[in-house]
Each structure stands twice: as structure tokens, then as C-alpha cells.
Write a structure and sequence with these properties.
Blueprint (H helix, E strand, L loop, with lengths): L8 H15 L2 E4 L23 H11 L5 H12 L7 H14 L1 E6 L5 E6 L15 E5 L14 E5 L2 E8 L7 H14 L9 E5 L4 E4 L34 H8 L2 H10 L2 E3 L6 E3 L1
Parallel strand pairs: 1-4, 6-7
Antiparallel strand pairs: 2-3, 4-5, 5-6, 7-8, 9-10
Helix pairs in contact: 1-6, 2-3
Amino acid sequence: MNRRRYTEAQSVQKPAAELLAGLGWRSVVAYNEEDFGPHSLLGRDSKAEWVLKRHVRAALVRLNPGVPAVAIEQAMDALLALDVAKTLVQTNEDKYKLLREGIPVQVRWPDGRESSEKLTVIDFDRPDDPARNEFICVQELWLEGGPAPVRPDLLGFVNGLPLLFVEFKRQDKDLKVAFDDNYSRYVYDLPGLFAFNAMVVLSDGFDARFGTITSPWEHFYRWKRLNEGDVDPAPRDDAEPVHALLPILLRGMCLPATLLDLVESFTLFDRSEGEPLKIM
């Protein structure tokens, strides 16, 4: 493999977005294309919005037919509220429970009845049904809320919620730089962006590693096979891969049904050492 082919971030980012589009994601480039307002490209009112509220609200209406609009707005408020007294991982665990178990609301029905309900925002039973769940990968989305505007390379939204964060580096950079200088800065400056995060991916287009919001660098791992019998392209963790791992990781983890399976069935919060650790 000619590693010079992977020297520019755009040569990694664009093919990755195209690959995700082939897996069932809608691909959007927001850099100089995004406008604002309810009927804009992504429905955001400003760069300070880190979820796609229009898409979240649409999912709540779609997945909870007949629920009055007042209850939908209650669910929106509960889902998007941030408690500044909680750590990021505590917030992430709270949001995870809402995704898995539903958002509790008090519903007053048109006939006057009242009941306690839990509203669904992601359909885990039919994960790859486009009529139920919407997957959007957004390149170069401007975000504000920290010391300066930032522009993550790629964000993956499921029903408007940012579950996937991807940072790319050029091939002439050590991949750990993506963790130390880029991803870590985003977490520090804009923690709200990671309130719903399920997975962080770091890649130079050749090597690729995934982790969660509590993973130290040494616990970012490679996804190295699509089938059990495939040859291991990097038998040692510190070995140079013999071919590009990013396509393998994206195909292995980011197919819509697979990603939601990983979220629902292969994610846990471990408290054995005190502060919860998120493990996938």
C-alpha cells in the first residue's frame, strides 16, 4: 500500500464519508454549506447547537405515534438537559439510560386520561429500518460553546443525536496526536458534544482505532476483521498494519444495525474502580 496516498486529511475524510453513505448513512458536508433556521440544511438555529433538534423531535413523533405535542416537548427537554454538577461520564450514562429505557414523561391524553409513559427516541428493534431510524454523517460541522469555534472532521448522528465522533490525521502525523491534541481538546472545550457519544474513532486512513469517552489512549483498539477467518493485518498492537484498517473498522462497526447493536448490547458502565468507566 502506497502510504503517500493518505497524506492529506481530505483524502481520508471524504472516502470515509462515502463509505458510510454506502452503508446507509446520509452524508452531509456542512463546512460552507450550512445555513440556519427550522428549514435549513440540518435545522440548527446556531453553531451552539450540538444536537440536531429538528431530527430528534421528528424521531420522537415518529416512534411514539399519537403522543400529544406537549409530551413530546417534555421528552425533548428531559433528553437535552445538561446537569453542570455531573461529570461527563455521569451525564453520558444518564443519556444512555434514556436511549435504552425510554424518556419518562407524564402524558395527558385527548380524552382527559393521564398516564406515565416512556418515549422512544431510537428504535433498537428495527435498527436499520430507514422509516424508524435516521443516520446522518456530517463533515466539518462548525460548533461554538468553547474558547473558540471548532469543526470536528466527522460526526455521526442517529435520530439527531451525536453518537459517533471521528477525528482524522494526515499520514505523516503520529495517530496518538489525534487523541492528545484534537479529541482531548474537544472533550475539554465542548463536553456537551459527547453527552450522547457511543464511540470515538481516530484514524489516519491507514491505521484506525476506537474507544469510548473514558478510554485512555492505550485502550483505543483496532477492529481488524470482518470475518473470523480473515488474516490479522496487525498481529501485535504496536505493529504497523499491512493494509488500511479504517474501511474494516467502518464496515465492521458502523453499519446502522451493527452500531445500534453495539450500543444496546455491548456497552456497559463499570464501577469496580469508583468513577464509572464506559466500555464497549
